[in-house]
Amino acid sequence: MTIYDDEIFKMACDQFQVIADYLNIDPNDREWATYPKRAVAVTLPVHMDDGSTKAFQGYRVQHHIALGPTKGGTRFALSLSMGETAALAMWMSWKCALANLPYGGAKGGVAVDPTRLSHTELEAVSRRYMQEMIPFVGPHTDIMGPDMGTNEQIMAWFMDTYSVYMGYAVNEIVTGKPVAIGGTEGRREATGRGVVYLVERAMNMLKIDPEKCTAIVQGFGNVGSVTALSFAYKSGVKVVGIGDHTATIYNPKGIDVKAAEQHVLKKGNLRAFAQGDHVNPNEFLTLPCDVLVPAAVDRVIHGRNAGQLKCRILAESKACKASFGPNRK
Amino acid sequence: MTIYDDEIFKMACDQFQVIADYLNIDPNDREWATYPKRAVAVTLPVHMDDGSTKAFQGYRVQHHIALGPTKGGTRFALSLSMGETAALAMWMSWKCALANLPYGGAKGGVAVDPTRLSHTELEAVSRRYMQEMIPFVGPHTDIMGPDMGTNEQIMAWFMDTYSVYMGYAVNEIVTGKPVAIGGTEGRREATGRGVVYLVERAMNMLKIDPEKCTAIVQGFGNVGSVTALSFAYKSGVKVVGIGDHTATIYNPKGIDVKAAEQHVLKKGNLRAFAQGDHVNPNEFLTLPCDVLVPAAVDRVIHGRNAGQLKCRILAESKACKASFGPNRK
Amino acid sequence: MTIYDDEIFKMACDQFQVIADYLNIDPNDREWATYPKRAVAVTLPVHMDDGSTKAFQGYRVQHHIALGPTKGGTRFALSLSMGETAALAMWMSWKCALANLPYGGAKGGVAVDPTRLSHTELEAVSRRYMQEMIPFVGPHTDIMGPDMGTNEQIMAWFMDTYSVYMGYAVNEIVTGKPVAIGGTEGRREATGRGVVYLVERAMNMLKIDPEKCTAIVQGFGNVGSVTALSFAYKSGVKVVGIGDHTATIYNPKGIDVKAAEQHVLKKGNLRAFAQGDHVNPNEFLTLPCDVLVPAAVDRVIHGRNAGQLKCRILAESKACKASFGPNRK
Amino acid sequence: MTIYDDEIFKMACDQFQVIADYLNIDPNDREWATYPKRAVAVTLPVHMDDGSTKAFQGYRVQHHIALGPTKGGTRFALSLSMGETAALAMWMSWKCALANLPYGGAKGGVAVDPTRLSHTELEAVSRRYMQEMIPFVGPHTDIMGPDMGTNEQIMAWFMDTYSVYMGYAVNEIVTGKPVAIGGTEGRREATGRGVVYLVERAMNMLKIDPEKCTAIVQGFGNVGSVTALSFAYKSGVKVVGIGDHTATIYNPKGIDVKAAEQHVLKKGNLRAFAQGDHVNPNEFLTLPCDVLVPAAVDRVIHGRNAGQLKCRILAESKACKASFGPNRK
Amino acid sequence: MTIYDDEIFKMACDQFQVIADYLNIDPNDREWATYPKRAVAVTLPVHMDDGSTKAFQGYRVQHHIALGPTKGGTRFALSLSMGETAALAMWMSWKCALANLPYGGAKGGVAVDPTRLSHTELEAVSRRYMQEMIPFVGPHTDIMGPDMGTNEQIMAWFMDTYSVYMGYAVNEIVTGKPVAIGGTEGRREATGRGVVYLVERAMNMLKIDPEKCTAIVQGFGNVGSVTALSFAYKSGVKVVGIGDHTATIYNPKGIDVKAAEQHVLKKGNLRAFAQGDHVNPNEFLTLPCDVLVPAAVDRVIHGRNAGQLKCRILAESKACKASFGPNRK
Amino acid sequence: MTIYDDEIFKMACDQFQVIADYLNIDPNDREWATYPKRAVAVTLPVHMDDGSTKAFQGYRVQHHIALGPTKGGTRFALSLSMGETAALAMWMSWKCALANLPYGGAKGGVAVDPTRLSHTELEAVSRRYMQEMIPFVGPHTDIMGPDMGTNEQIMAWFMDTYSVYMGYAVNEIVTGKPVAIGGTEGRREATGRGVVYLVERAMNMLKIDPEKCTAIVQGFGNVGSVTALSFAYKSGVKVVGIGDHTATIYNPKGIDVKAAEQHVLKKGNLRAFAQGDHVNPNEFLTLPCDVLVPAAVDRVIHGRNAGQLKCRILAESKACKASFGPNRK
């Protein structure tokens, strides 16, 4: 029994076995190639606004360091386990390798629900987490980034905590930081744009005319909203379905995506957005469309609905739910 | 759910709550005081003698660093878990605090059965474990020592691996190393002598004459054999029972402990030692004696036999089974 | 014009010239021997309890490092200037040299009135000061200690801030810390006992019988109270005068010093202490006595009162007003 | 009272208040934003050629480190004070911010008249200054450059002293070093060219034809001479006035600037340069011209002469008097 | 007598004197400019496959560090001496200087015949050599590369050994490593291509038509084979002679160089290559040709054969015999 | 051929073989046990008083680091070679091992005749040597001390050069430094006293009465003079012969050793010392005496005179000629 034993890590290992068989990887090289090089757990005592002290568990997993530093996001989620963190780190290794980047994969996070923390508490958790990580990370060893439950502000706190320690500004320690302190322009839109770029390539290969296509996009965060906007105003694809965790809207005549974006900026979600029919979320993915983009949570397509999909192009995207509620400043 | 969740860690936390109630420790200070400051897990790929590669899991837990470096042993045991390691580290903190030593507690180890490794494999596991630990330990941060399944030789490998990295001999990095490279003389006998020292103090308080006493000592390793020898040849106590995992021997006329020691040095255990009756191990602890010393494994006295003990002084000792079999050189 | 140009630094330089003439020190070696090796000023932005942000100036001067690390106290005083800090550092060098200790002198502090800070603000100022000092101090370079306006608690904050940075407990970074985290026992009483030890040696040289002597002690802090108590209960000297900044009391029949100590522990000062006459503070030092100990502030004996002193032994002591009021926890 | 209290620092703070009001900066953020993060003063004992030892005062101020390393020149001037150094550092911060460079501002120097030092003494002062600065500077923390009274040679000494310490050549530690050891080509001409570039843009906006313009350039060092040459031979502007501290020359028919340059290379200054009338320096700036470039010392335009200027374009340039006399090798 | 005193170092010093006279270098600057800044010798105990332990001598010489890190290859050759290593390091300095690269020269190696080591022994020697070099090398101090007797695999071992020490992948520590871990594409062919590039420039200057030329290339390793192939298939030069240490072949009608390359890939050398006459190696260089490229070992042209050369262009190339036999994996 | 190949290193290796045979050391462990772990050679360019620049060769050999730091003296001698340095380092290892000290042996030095250097030149050579050694030495790696041709002053320069680099006083870096900066009292006399202590033990074993003995002491430096004085005024042995490189004096009635000491302090040597006969130095060692102490140079007793010695006790001492002439300040 190891500290990684849970369902999600097992799933990642099973995926590895399939590919390893396909690539004829020596069985002797499989065990150490799945288990991470190194995992760290830290206890984070934090003074809460109500005067109590809570102790959160923070994690960081570095999958391998053969090619250069490790690199990977930081997830703040109540259910976060070491096994999930290890699986995410391994997947990060694979992504870097496929893109031929000289990095190993890493991942980390805190088992905390960030939506239940005040702004002050969130800063305290974030800074203490980075402080405990100082011996394990660095521009040459392990670089952090945002992931579910973390955002630009948290990256700025990470960078500041690390920089105070080093005695000078070290903006190489995190990706996903605000542009003002060295962040990359266009980062927020990058995933959505990538989805559209690949869908366009698929259309080209399949000889499909974008102007005659319809699309359904599930999710309306950083990824889904940019995808839908790019479909509508750049590719010329008619967006017939959009949705978030509050509403799933279908309109075969096409949805005014800019209006939806404005609505969400004002109201926070799509619940009251009136352009189209609010349909049953369980049936949303199987409605007629040429392109289907699930950009909300993972594992929404499975044995029970796969056969019913109507789309010609299925473009799964990585949903990185970077935003959260009350403590957003 | 944390990486520490198992029975032995829960037991340690429960012990803490009892004392914390007694000492009126603020409930806000209890959670972070039980969970360790920091825990590290590493994967150790090792080339085995048969040409295969195995990946072992290694652990290190540092409980708190408020007073100085942490300090604690290294356990090689197949069943070793992170929870057990964390419990052992916390107990180490308590021991240091009670002895007023400026250390926090630590503990580490590898989930491996050292008796199934060849000498070469054992060296490989030991050196790789220390190599992965280099970023986390040091004379000012965390000092290792032997524990169950490790011995002087392994401490020497640890020291050498660390010293090669530093570029000079660092003998402060481990305790329990051979005297020739800076180890402490008398360390092997220290626990047994401590047991006898405390038994003598108890006898003095109880106005018991050692020369009229009898003793049973369970276990004949570093602790039990030294205890029995000291009883017999220093305190003048008559040793009427000795035992190891192969034999439990009782002789109300007294046992020639030096002969037993010679026997074990030659044969490896007490199985064929003929001075006295070989009795049922389950009844051994409840045989008549003035002093009873359980020095083999933990949790041998429990609700089912506590009422049947005949001894006047019960001296529980910490058994540190430092020796093991085939790979001993 | 340098950053040290003020009256107190000039006084120290003048003292140096007198001795340098006496010792025939080469004129070429005098300038660099008075100016400090190195001085650092830092700005300390602190969030105050009322929501405002104030920026305090912090200083540290290291006089010379020829023999080993520098060493010296930390003063929190509104009037603190760089010149005063430099003078105090130079005096510290001389003290170390006279005691043949392998240290150079240092001194530091913050231009702040600690009595006007809340406990929270005081911690914030103290921790920020140490944080800014991290590049300049260390067990091998410069060791801090308490001085006027700082105390054990502040030293503990200094040590913790430095230790968090280093990643392990570094209690060598400050002297004067609480005994529980490595402080020296007897430190509080050391100066007062030293005064009495030297007065007794002087009495011995002058063939004076302590039991027939009277003493006046100005100041009733760490130094004055211990001095008065030691006179009364160890040397047998009759204490006829004590005083603090609230009251100066004279009683030719002798004062019950233990009663005075109890009074101060309860009330905070001597204002209402009734054993003896409350006399004019300006005349206090010139009242009849055999031994006079000024242990309050410096420069109380000068051209205008020197000729009127009645004492046979004048024992100037260094008054280190380590305690202060409302923020004391 | 702080170590920065002098007129020039006060002027910089006043400038800041004007802008801060304009930008609505929170009053709480103003105090710490003007006072420097950190200032260091060091004493530099130097053996002089006449056998004596002098102790010079060296300074370095780092204004803020929020965005990256600090950066700024080194001034050797007898009158240099800590306040002036702090003002220059703050101005450097503003310049970097306006140019959107990821640097904070710094400035340093030695209170010494470099023209009165021999070449040997100048090297000794320079090397000792850098040696004392080693703990405070570095490619990631603070980068030095030349300023008034320092030049390429001094930067080379700084680089060598720092590199010997590090054990390898660190040419990132200084800007303004000789091209042969990694300096930037074109650096000497950069300021003058920048002046001309901006004047040309102004002419373009004002619809002025350069070929019909006249210019007066005050100063004939790195900045002034390059400015005048560029006007004459690149922009086609007729240069009617040039001057240095020895002569101010006016010729409404135009001056042969290349001849002036050759003259200065041979004679060291313009004193005997015969092309034009040698006019009263006090009236020089108010002579008729289209473009006026003060490139000598600061604060030459003030309430008493501002109303009399005849120019249409006033291009103030930063004069960096990098050259000096007898010790120039 | 120094540790460098042998013939090859003396030759390099003599070369330096010739040039130094030509450049009028101050005699005072000549001695230190020839002797290396620093030389290190280490003893490398290695367990051999037959159970014995051998102790090899390893060297590293760093010629000067004035401009940046040193840089240079690693030679494994039984006859390697410190003097030869120093000469090679000095030549490396000259090469870097001529190419205007900010490096000093270095060279190192082990006195071992790599063709007599098994793959395991070669790895052991290589890793131990790098381990002993760790205090002396680094991306900022000294960078290694391959040379005679070493290859890509050895560079990979060097990089791995260094990276394990640093805790992260440091591919800047060696040049000449495999492309997969950061090596430069085209490195193997670079020298041969450079030879041809220069020969083509010479032909152009001499108005020679390549298509009407013949060439003889001595050596058929990395340099010779690439040179011959480029002549034949890129420049259009007819290759009439090729050779290695097993055969020298001449064919005035031209040799099929691709066939020769295939032959060597299969057989390991040219011994049995049948296209042309196998001629006396001593006469090979003096056979008729327009271009002669000695690309095997050094010092093949000397007083006894210089007068007999028939070529119009003599293109000496650096032969880097990077390949070797039985332990090649 | 290695850099150590000379007669003295060969002699040390031969000595090792004799003992290794005696101790049955595995032949596989002999080669690496004689060759040093590491040797460094550096070139020291020094500006001489006459304006020229000379380049001296400096060496340092570290024999083994298995037990702790290495330790050993620094020799300034024109004939110094790397082989001699390596032999001395190995002997130092043996000495430490015999005394059970946790050190390996080291030795270093410069190939220079210190008696031909001015005080300024000697300081320059010494400081440059230490500066080049900084990467290789340290309190945990290698500690220097004096040896032939070096003295307290040179150790002080070493310590200062190293301390400036570290930024604080590091007196652990050298032994044999002046007492004022942390040197050990009694060090100068230690060798001579050790000789006498051992001679007294030998006398005791041989039942010889010191008061009836005569002694001849060759050499009158730190070792010889202290030996002779201790014989005469502590043991009661009659000293009948003393000598230095200027005179060898024999007086069967006994020599007034204190007078000789005074004579040398005044005149610098024994040349004109008149108490006794000035005898032929070649015959000096074979004159009649009970105890013979050769304390000048090594290898004075050999096959040609061994048979002629008259002494009963032959006490060879290590002569450390620490003093030298004109540059002594």
Q: Largest interface, per-chain counts?
A: A-B, 28 and 28 residues
Overall geometric form of chain A: globular
According to CATH, the homologous superfamily of the largest domain in chain A is Leucine Dehydrogenase, chain A, domain 1
**How many domains of chain A?**
2
Average per-residue pLDDT of chain A, rounded, comes to 92
Secondary-structure element order of chain A, N to C: HHEEEHEHEHHEHEEHEHEE
Poorly predicted ranges of chain A: 319-329
Can you identify the CATH class of the largest domain in chain A?
A: Alpha Beta
- Count the helices of chain A. How many? 9
Radius of gyration of chain A: 21 Å
Q: Could you give a short account of the major beta sheet of chain A? A: 6 strands, mixed
Query: From the 3D coordinates, which CATH architecture of the largest domain in chain A would you assign?
Result: 3-Layer(aba) Sandwich
Structural class of chain A: alpha/beta
Distance between the termini of chain A: 42 Å
Helix content of chain A: 25-40%
Number of strands of chain A: 11
In spatial order, strands of the major sheet of chain A run: 9-8-7-6-10-11
The oligomeric state of the chains shown is homohexamer
- Strand residue content of chain A: 15-25%
